[in-house]
């Protein structure tokens, strides 16, 4: 039916409670096999919610999800029970921002990795431990046989994140979701983890969706970037296109705000204002109140995507479509 | 001093040290934190958070402090403003030594601080107006509320809309503006910004940086700007100070360090910045492993365990911070730059 690894169609996520939060608004996104995509956005843009939706981690009672989420052709919203367990960790797994919280403090890291392998692959303990050892080697942890017997608190932050990656990849998932995995790390450690993820992605040939707020990080790891704002994708393209030819005013503002090569004393081209509250569904372009190019037509309706190439799209009325050939 | 008075905040403390004197001089600052354990809670080990740090900040200058977590940059900031008591060393603000001629209370009139967590640093039970006016009231300055209002409008918050709100009712960027206004309410001459923009979203960060640059110019402020983001530090600072495991490894004018990083650690820190060019991504990480534990830092040069150029001398002898011959004002603590150190590659240009 489809050869896409991930195909999200018209996803809408609302959180109900004292007040409603429109976290994701009509988001469509696809990922090919073995492709690395960065979801780039600021806090509250819906990037983490998108990842959690893909794993079915949102609290079912309080969230309303609409749309189709196909992973390898299966609608994951139909999964439950055993099938969902097999899917999580087997087909798709996730690396979180804080490995200190994501690892279990009372089990050794070897046991944690082996447990996942035993569950998913039905192997005996000894075989699973061999795989755990192999994984620790692959994530380049020095003296892996000793580290297998360590508890998470005995490891440094960078080492824990390596263990987290080893755990996530132990069952050879086809899709890895990474939610700001290097944000809590120091600069010199961050770059090590980014390059490790890049190498492992190539080695295992898996698809990766990488959530980050840092454009530099996205450039280092991904081939494609989707920029999110207020629960929608506003621009998508290859990393090259987004960096060298940003079209959406928000993407341009973000790039300017990164301060790369800004001369000292020069005034920063800051985006005024703050991201919108998500209490009402968008009726126009969510960025319009902060946009220097906005006009009355921008708030009249949610702008459709302008397609500039096969997988290059921008949701902005000010972008001229490519004339049809 | 009439020329400078026009550009300072109202009621700013008078200049005492004279125009030639640095606003802040720090000498051999040291702070060790005990790690307690065992049944009697005795000190088992010492975290050498800040160990022999010396630097000075000129009037009107912005000094950026960079380094990884645990390098002592925040502890240094807290020592400067007296939030943590120093073990040893001297802090001389405008010609007066802290603890001698200068009381803690007077120091805090002249030095204020903005912290990373904008929410945790505001009292949730005080309105924004009360928070900003609080310090000025304690110090007995005139018209604290009027001051609060004028500073609120200066940092871009309309007093009519924001004065009676509580911290939880405003956004992160607005809260950091409040913290800046609160720091300025004391009419300080030196403002310490400890990761003050790190928690903000990129688009909001740029707004706050613009505001900080404007305020500095308008009121003749001096900044100590602590951050892990080199691009931000470069934008705001005149000089950069690089710390590693409680020690200063390099200090110099921002352009000098940007064009030539003298210490191998500084160079690694710069190469660890993610590339912004998709065609030219980072190929190999500049350093392997995590920074060592400051409880038991390596002997000799503290960086030798991770340094590509480390030699036997680096393991035994700690390098001193020395001025580089080519660039005055640019100092580095590395045996590579000291021909007398005994390092086989010392003095070889291009390598270091």
For this entry, give a set of tags.
heterodimer, A: 325 residues, alpha/beta, Rossmann fold, eight-stranded mixed sheet, 12 helices, 12 strands, B: 352 residues, 2 domains, four-stranded antiparallel sheet, 29% helix, globular
CATH homology superfamily name of chain A: P-loop containing nucleotide triphosphate hydrolases
Q: Biggest β-sheet of chain B, characterized?
A: 8 strands, mixed
CATH architecture of the largest domain in chain B: 3-Layer(aba) Sandwich
User: Strand order within the widest sheet of chain B?
Assistant: 6-7-8-3-9-10-12-11
Under CATH at level 1, the class of the largest domain in chain B stands as: Alpha Beta
Q: Whole-Å distance between the termini of chain A?
A: 29 Å
In percent terms, what proportion of residues of chain A is strand? Answer: 15-25%
Q: Can you describe this structure in just a few lines?
A:
The complex is a heterodimer of chains A (325) and B (352). By secondary structure, chain A is of the alpha/beta class.
Descriptive report:
The complex is a heterodimer of chains A (325) and B (352). Chain A has 325 residues and is α/β, with parallel strands linked by helices. Chain A has one domain: P-loop containing nucleotide triphosphate hydrolases (Rossmann fold, 3-Layer(aba) Sandwich), CATH 3.40.50. Helices cover 35% and strands 22% of the residues of chain A. Chain A has helices spanning 47-55, 81-91, 99-102, 109-121, 125-138, 144-147, 157-169, 187-204, 215-221, 239-244, 249-257, 296-300; strands at residues 6-15, 21-31, 36-40, 63-71, 74-75, 92-95, 175-179, 207-212, 224-229, 232-238, 306-309, 312-314. In chain A, the strands form two sheets. An eight-stranded mixed sheet of chain A has the order 6-7-8-3-9-10-12-11, with helices on both faces. Chain A has a four-stranded antiparallel sheet with strand order 2-1-4-5, with helices on one face. In chain A, a hairpin with a 2-residue loop joins strand 4 (63-71) and strand 5 (74-75). In chain A, helix 5 (125-138) packs across helix 7 (157-169). Chain A is globular, with a radius of gyration of 21 Å. Chain B has 352 residues and is of the alpha/beta class. Chain B is 29% helix and 21% strand. Chain B is built from twelve helices and twelve strands. In chain B, the strands form two sheets. An eight-stranded mixed sheet of chain B has the order 6-7-8-3-9-10-12-11, sandwiched between helices. The longest helix of chain B is centred in the middle third of the chain and has 18 residues, at 202-219. Chain B is globular, with a radius of gyration of 21 Å. In chain B, 47% of the residues are buried. Residues 1-6 of chain B have low confidence and may be disordered.
């Amino acid at each position: 039916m489809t050869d896409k690894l991930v195909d999200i169609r018209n996803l809408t996520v609302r959180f109900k409670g004292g007040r409603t939060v429109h976290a994701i608004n009509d988001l469509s996104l696809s990922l090919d096999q073995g492709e690395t995509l960065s979801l780039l956005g600021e806090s509250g843009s819906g990037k983490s919610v998108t990842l959690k939706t893909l794993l079915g981690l949102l609290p079912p009672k309080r969230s309303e999800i609409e749309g189709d989420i196909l992973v390898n052709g299966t609608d994951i919203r139909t999964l439950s029970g055993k099938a969902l367990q097999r899917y999580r960790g087997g087909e798709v797994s996730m690396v979180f921002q804080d490995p200190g919280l994501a690892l279990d403090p009372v089990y050794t890291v070897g046991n944690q990795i082996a447990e996942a392998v035993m569950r998913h692959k039905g192997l005996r303990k000894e075989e699973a431990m061999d795989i755990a050892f192999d994984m620790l080697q692959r994530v380049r942890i020095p003296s892996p046989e000793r580290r297998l017997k360590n508890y998470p608190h005995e490891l440094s932050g960078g080492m824990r994140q390596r263990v987290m990656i080893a755990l996530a990849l132990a069952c050879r998932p086809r899709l890895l979701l990474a939610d700001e995995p290097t944000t809590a790390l120091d600069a010199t450690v961050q770059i090590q983890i980014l390059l490790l993820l890049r190498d492992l992605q190539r080695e295992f040939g898996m698809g990766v969706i990488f959530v980050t707020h840092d454009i530099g990080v996205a450039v280092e790891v991904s081939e494609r970037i989707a920029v999110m704002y207020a629960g929608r994708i506003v621009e998508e393209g290859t990393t090259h296109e987004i960096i060298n030819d940003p079209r959406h005013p928000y993407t341009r503002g973000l790039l300017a705000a990164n301060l790369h090569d800004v001369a000292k004393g020069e005034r920063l081209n800051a985006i005024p204002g703050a991201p919108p509250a998500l209490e009402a569904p968008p009726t126009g372009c969510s960025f319009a109140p902060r946009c220097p190019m906005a006009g009355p037509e921008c708030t009249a309706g949610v702008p459709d995507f302008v397609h500039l190439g096969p997988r290059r799209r921008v949701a902005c009325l000010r972008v001229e479509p490519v004339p049809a050939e | 001093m009439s020329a400078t008075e026009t550009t300072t905040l109202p009621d700013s403390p008078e200049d005492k040290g004279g125009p030639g004197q640095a606003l802040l001089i720090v000498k051999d600052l040291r702070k060790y934190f005990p790690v307690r354990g065992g049944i009697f809670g005795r000190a088992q080990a010492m975290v050498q958070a800040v160990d022999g740090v010396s630097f000075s900040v000129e009037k009107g200058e912005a000094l950026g402090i960079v380094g990884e977590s645990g390098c002592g940059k925040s502890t240094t900031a807290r020592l400067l403003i007296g939030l943590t008591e120093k073990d040893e060393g001297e802090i001389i603000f405008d010609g007066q030594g802290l603890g001698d001629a200068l009381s803690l209370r007077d120091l805090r009139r002249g030095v204020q601080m903005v912290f990373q967590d904008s929410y945790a640093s505001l009292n949730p039970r005080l309105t924004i107006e009360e928070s900003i006016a609080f310090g000025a009231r304690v110090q007995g300055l005139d018209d604290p509320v009027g001051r609060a209002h004028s500073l609120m409008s200066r940092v871009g918050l309309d007093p009519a809309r924001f004065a009676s709100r509580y911290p939880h009712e405003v956004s992160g960027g607005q809260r950091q503006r409040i913290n800046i206004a609160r720091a300025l309410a004391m009419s300080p001459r030196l403002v310490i910004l400890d990761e003050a923009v790190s928690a903000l979203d990129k688009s909001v960060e740029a707004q706050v940086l613009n505001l900080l640059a404007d305020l500095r110019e308008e009121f003749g402020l001096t900044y100590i700007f602590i951050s892990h983001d080199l691009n931000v530090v470069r934008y705001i600072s005149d000089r950069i100070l690089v710390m590693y495991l409680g020690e200063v490894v390099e200090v110099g004018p921002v352009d000098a360090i940007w064009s030539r990083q003298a210490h191998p650690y500084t160079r690694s820190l710069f190469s660890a910045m993610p590339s912004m060019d998709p065609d030219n991504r980072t190929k190999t990480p500049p350093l392997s492993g995590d920074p060592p534990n400051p409880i038991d830092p390596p002997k000799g040069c503290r960086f030798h365990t991770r340094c590509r150029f480390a030699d036997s001398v680096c393991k035994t002898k700690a390098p001193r911070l020395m001025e580089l011959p080519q660039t005055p004002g640019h100092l580095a603590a590395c045996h590579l730059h000291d021909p007398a150190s005994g390092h086989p590659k010392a003095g070889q240009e291009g390598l270091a």
